[in-house]
Amino acid sequence: MPRNVVFIADADSWSGKGLIARFIQGGTDLILNSLQDDKEWEDVLVSCTAAGSKVLVTHADLCSSRDLSTMLDQAEKLLGPVDVMIHNCCAIRPAHVESCEESEFVEIMQRNAKSAFFCTQALGRRMAARAGGSIIFVSSIHNEKPTGASFTYSASQGAVKMLAHEAALFLGRFGIRVNVIEMGPIEGSDVTFQSELSGLYDDYRYKVPGALLGTATDLAELAFFLTGEEAGYLNGADIRLDGGFLLHYMDYRMNKPAEGETRSQ
In which residue ranges of the chain is pLDDT below 50? Predict the structure, then answer.
């Protein structure tokens, strides 16, 4: 049975680490795009090798079609063609509509949305030529829900969501499935999305009905499922992985623990 080759666009991120850990369990080979020096990956490479996975660490500019093409040519020689693309670039910085500098806006849009376009174009063409593949965008509930903290992040994720829909419509004709995971709150989201405009993240962990935050493992398990045959009819889907966070709207009924009570993760 042929081994899958999975490309992870931002291996350095919190989501990247979880994805790596899950996919090497599934017997896949990995292309890890990183901004870090190769020496920073030595321990990970040892773990992957022990699990039986081949790994190539790359440093491609995801906003350069030439750089991506060169990287993919190299990867195909070493590992074979890419079967799964996971775009998980979710850079965020505080930014308000009335005060954001042009350079800040352009940087976030490039890192999140432009990179998504170039990756989809480069890998989509190769997958289409082989009539199969899976593309997963790790996005956010803020591709529709404003953050009140970083409109550039929301705008970039909204662009990624529509890119995914258009790609699903076109690439689906070639047997390629394109889906979006809309990640909800994780540990530290209250700091990341601290806002003077919105109270969405005030006591945020208790706005999740189960009062537990999402993790990189939750994300990785869903991504792994989406690449499998069991998800063969899923194309163009937006899957909200937020534990029901966005369903909450009445603060006084938050599922808070009683005084002195703690909840285990």
Answer: 1
Please give the pLDDT value at position 1: 45
Share the mean pLDDT of the chain: 94
Helix (H) or strand (E) holding 103: helix 102-109
| Confidence at residue 255, expressed as pLDDT on a 0 to 100 scale | 77
Give the domain range for residue 69.
Answer: 5-250
CATH number of the domain to which 104 belongs: 3.40.50.720
In a domain, 41, yes or no: yes
Task: Quote the CA–CA distance of 207 and 253 in Å, as a whole number.
Answer: 9
In contact, 204 and 182? CB cutoff 8 Å: no
Q: Are the beta carbons of 116 and 160 closer than 8 angstroms?
A: yes
Q: How far apart are alpha carbons 244 and 254 in whole angstroms?
A: 12
CA distances from 1 to 4, 28, 175, 225, 248 (A): 9, 12, 19, 18, 45
Domain contains 259: no
- Structure confidence at residue 249 (pLDDT): 72
The answer to whether position 173 is within a domain reads yes
For the full predicted model, state whether its pTM sits above 0.90: yes
Task: Record the tokens describing residue 116, joined without a space.
Answer: 């998504």
Is 263 inside a domain boundary?
no
Measured distance CA(164)–CA(181) in Å, rounded: 11
In sequence order, what are the residues at sequence separation of 6 or more whose Cβ sits closer than 8 angstroms to the Cβ of residue 70? 60
How many angstroms separate the CA atoms of 32 and 186, rounded? 23
pLDDT for 256: 77
| Total number of domains constituting the chain | 1
Q: Rounded distance, CA 182 to CA 259, Å?
A: 33
Indicate the residue type of 262. Answer: T
Predicted local distance difference test score (pLDDT) of residue 262: 65
